[in-house]
C-alpha cells in the first residue's frame, strides 16, 4: 500500500466515525442532544479525546511495529487477556458493520420506499467486493466520499440555520436511554466505543504513515472536521423541528429542503456507511488472519461469510442497534483506553 499523507489520514480518521449513526444524526442525538448545553460541552470533550487516542494508537503502531489490535492493548505476554480483548474487538467491529447495514436498510426504506432488507443486502454485497481488496480500497472509499459528504452536510446545516434561525441552546429530546445517564457518561462512552472500534483500523493505517508530523496534522484535522460537522448536524436538526422519530433524521432535513438534495445526501450517506463497513470488515478479517492459518489461506471466503451473517443480523433495526450496541461497548472499552495509555507511557519510559 502507498504511503499515507496528512490529507489522506485526515479523511481516513474522520471516515472511521462518519458512519450511519453519525452523519444521519441518530447517534449524535442519542449521545448528546438531550443534555442541552452540557451535551455540547460533552461533544467537544469527546472529539478532543478521540484525537488524543487516535494519535496515541497510530504512534504506538509506528514505534513498536505491532499492528495486531490485541497486542496494542495488551503489550505483556498475557494470552488470556489478549484473547478477551481480541474477541471483544471482533464483536464490536462486527456490530458496527451490522449497524451500518441496518442504517442502509433504513436509508433505502426512507428514500426509495423499498423493503428494509434490500438496502442491507446491497451494502453487504458491495462491502464484500471492496473488503477483499484490503486497506487500499478502504482508504480510497474514505478519500472519495468523506470530503464531499462533509461539504454537503455542512451546506444543509448552514441553510437550515439561516432559514430557521440560530437557537441559543440547540437541544432535541430523544427519550431517556438508561445506559446514558448524564452528559459525562455519555461523552466518555461515545469516545470509548469509537476508539475501541477503530483500534484495528488505525493500527493498520500506522503501517503506511512514516512521519510523526503526518500523524498529528492528519488526526487533528480529522478531529476538527468531526466537531464542525457534528455541530452542524445537531443545530440543523434542532431548528428544523427535531425529527427524532425518523431513523435517519438528517436525511429528513435534506429532503425537507429539496427532494433532489435528499437523494444527493442519501447517496453520500450511503458512501459514509460503506466506508465504515469496509474499514470494519478489513480490520476484522486482518485480525482473524493473524489467529488462523485457514483464514489466512482463504480471506475472500471469510469476508463473504462475515457479510452474509451481517445481513441476517441487520434486520433487527437501526436505531435499536445504535441505542444498545454502542453504549454497552462504550462501557467495555473504558478498560481498553486505560491500557492504551499505560502501554504508551510504558513505551516512552523504556525508551528513556
Question: Can you give a write-up of this model?
Answer:
The chain has 352 residues and is an all-alpha fold. It has a single domain, classed as Sodium/glucose cotransporter (Up-down Bundle). It has 15 helices and no strands. The protein has helices at residues 6-17, 20-24, 26-31, 37-64, 69-73, 79-112, 116-131, 135-164, 183-205, 212-239, 249-257, 259-291, 293-297, 299-313, 318-351. Helix 6 runs antiparallel to helix 12, helix 6 runs antiparallel to helix 15 and helix 8 (135-164) runs parallel beside helix 10 (212-239). The model has no long low-confidence stretch (mean pLDDT 81).
What features would you highlight for this structure?
mainly alpha; Sodium/glucose cotransporter; globular
Structural class: mainly alpha
End-to-end gap: 32 Å
The run of helices and strands is HHHHHHHHHHHHHHH
Fraction of residues in helix: over 70%
CATH superfamily: Sodium/glucose cotransporter
Strand content: under 5%
Largest sheet: none
Shape: globular
Which runs of at least 5 residues are low in confidence (pLDDT < 50)?
A: none
Give the count of helical stretches: 15
Number of strands: 0
Return Rg in Å: 19 Å
If classified by CATH, what would the architecture be?
A: Up-down Bundle
Mean pLDDT: 81
* The CATH C-level class name: Mainly Alpha
CATH topology: Sodium/glucose cotransporter
Number of domains: 1
Amino acid at each position: 500500500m502507498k504511503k499515507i499523507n496528512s490529507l489522506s489520514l485526515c479523511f481516513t480518521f474522520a471516515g472511521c466515525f462518519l458512519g450511519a449513526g453519525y452523519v444521519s444524526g441518530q447517534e449524535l442525538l442519542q449521545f448528546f442532544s438531550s443534555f442541552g448545553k452540557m451535551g455540547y460541552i460533552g461533544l467537544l470533550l469527546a472529539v478532543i479525546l478521540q484525537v488524543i487516542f487516535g494519535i496515541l494508537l497510530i504512534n504506538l503502531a509506528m514505534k513498536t511495529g505491532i499492528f495486531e489490535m490485541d497486542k496494542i492493548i495488551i503489550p505483556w505476554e498475557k494470552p488470556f487477556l489478549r484473547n478477551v480483548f481480541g474477541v471483544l474487538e471482533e464483536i464490536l467491529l462486527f456490530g458496527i458493520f451490522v449497524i451500518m447495514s441496518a442504517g442502509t436498510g433504513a436509508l433505502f426504506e426512507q428514500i426509495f420506499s423499498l423493503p428494509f432488507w434490500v438496502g442491507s443486502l446491497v451494502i453487504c454485497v458491495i462491502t464484500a467486493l471492496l473488503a477483499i481488496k484490503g486497506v487500499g480500497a478502504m482508504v480510497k472509499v474514505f478519500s472519495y466520499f468523506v470530503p464531499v459528504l462533509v461539504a454537503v452536510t455542512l451546506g444543509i446545516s448552514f441553510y437550515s440555520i439561516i432559514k430557521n434561525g440560530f437557537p441559543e441552546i440547540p437541544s432535541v429530546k430523544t427519550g431517556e436511554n438508561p445506559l446514558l445517564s448524564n452528559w459525562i457518561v455519555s461523552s466518555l462512552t461515545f469516545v470509548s466505543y469509537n476508539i475501541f472500534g477503530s483500534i484495528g483500523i488505525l493500527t493498520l493505517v500506522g503501517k503506511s504513515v512514516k512521519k510523526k508530523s503526518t500523524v498529528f496534522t492528519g488526526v487533528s484535522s480529522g478531529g476538527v472536521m468531526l466537531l464542525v460537522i457534528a455541530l452542524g448536524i445537531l443545530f440543523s436538526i434542532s431548528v428544523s423541528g427535531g425529527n427524532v422519530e425518523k431513523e435517519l433524521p438528517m436525511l429528513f432535513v435534506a429532503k425537507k429542503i429539496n427532494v433532489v438534495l435528499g437523494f444527493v445526501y442519501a447517496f453520500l450517506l450511503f458512501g459514509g456507511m460503506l466506508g465504515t463497513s469496509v474499514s470494519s470488515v478489513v480490520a476484522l478479517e486482518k485480525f482473524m488472519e493473524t489467529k488462523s492459518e485457514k483464514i489466512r489461506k482463504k480471506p475472500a471466503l471469510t469476508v463473504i461469510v462475515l457479510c452474509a451473517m451481517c445481513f441476517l443480523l441487520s434486520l433487527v433495526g437501526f436505531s435499536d442497534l445504535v441505542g444498545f450496541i454502542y453504549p454497552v461497548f462504550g462501557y467495555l472499552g473504558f478498560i481498553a483506553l486505560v491500557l492504551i495509555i499505560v502501554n504508551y507511557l510504558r513505551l516512552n519510559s523504556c525508551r528513556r
